[in-house]
Design a protein that fits this description.
Blueprint lengths: L6 E6 L2 E6 L30 E6 L10 H15 L2 E6 L7 H4 L4 E5 L9 H12 L3 E5 L10 H7 L3 E14 L13 E11 L7 E6 L11 E8 L2 E6 L5 H5 L1 H14 L3
């Protein structure tokens, strides 16, 4: 089953606690997709406890209609799996070294454009990952921060174009990664398929587009993972449509990637 319940992080004085909301009957009955849970400063949690994810959906360019569903789906997965707690934010100013300190994974989902991070914030993000934490980028995370080359190295590549928006076949290049287990060797999905300015280098490619399924040829990576310092970075180009976020196969990829990025 797919769920639309929301999980949120609540403040009680200076302490943080995860507040599980009642499971909704359907995705469309989830709690307010537009609500914001700004980045704060949770305390580190013991290994084996639920890991903490900060999901950023801020945009300074094109804004995907699927952001609301993405937030609802991720909230539902946090609530139902019990594996992680989720903080949703579009408040760029609140993302600092201090606010990142208690999180395990930073997720840029459907972000776009030149997000107004200061040099200090940029250094905090890079230090967060390179010192052993995790980063995940989803879909247009590669259409973000072109003027910050080190971000390009973190996410793995920059978006070039999306020449195919149609059902197509995705080849599972590596079935042993936590994000791809159980997918088989291929699956078909309706998506806006990205190509990139340069193919990612020094990464473990997990998914590729089958070029024959779109009447083309060539090599089109769609998801990959790599080390960044002592940390881990993952990117998945899928996620344009509401239907993708509701797809159990995509949800399995995201949860597996979060688990891997958190070092679990």
């Amino acid at each position: 089953m797919l769920y639309g319940a929301c999980a949120e992080v609540c403040n009680a004085g200076m302490a943080h606690r995860a507040c599980a909301l009642v499971l909704a009957a359907s995705m469309l009955s989830g709690c307010g997709a537009g609500s914001d849970r700004s980045a704060t400063s949770p305390q580190p949690v013991p290994h084996g406890a639920a890991f903490r994810v900060l999901m950023v959906t801020a945009t300074r360019g094109f804004r995907h209609d699927s952001i609301g569903i993405a937030r609802d789906v991720m909230s539902g997965l946090a609530s139902t799996s019990g594996e992680f707690t989720l903080t949703l934010s579009e408040d760029i100013a609140s993302i600092t070294g201090e606010s990142l300190a208690g999180y395990d994974v930073l997720c840029f989902a459907l972000t776009t454009g030149e997000l107004p991070f200061s040099d200090g914030q940029k250094n905090a993000i890079l230090s967060f990952v390179s010192n052993g934490k995790g980063f995940i980028g989803i879909h247009s995370a590669t259409d973000t921060l072109y003027e910050w080359p080190e971000y390009g190295r973190l996410v793995g590549a920059y978006f070039r174009e999306h020449p195919w928006t149609q059902p197509a076949t995705v080849l599972v290049a590596d079935q042993g990664h936590p994000s791809t287990m159980g997918l088989g060797d291929r699956f078909t999905i309706l998506e806006e398929f990205y190509t990139f300015r340069e193919n990612p280098r020094d990464v473990q490619v997990l998914l590729r587009l089958d070029p024959a399924s779109v009447g083309s040829s060539g090599d089109y990576p769609l998801a990959w993972a790599h080390s960044y310092g002592s940390g881990r970075a993952y990117y998945n180009a899928l996620g344009h449509f509401d239907s993708t976020w509701r797809d159990a196969r995509f949800q399995r990829q995201v949860v597996g990637a979060l688990r891997w990025a958190a070092g679990r």
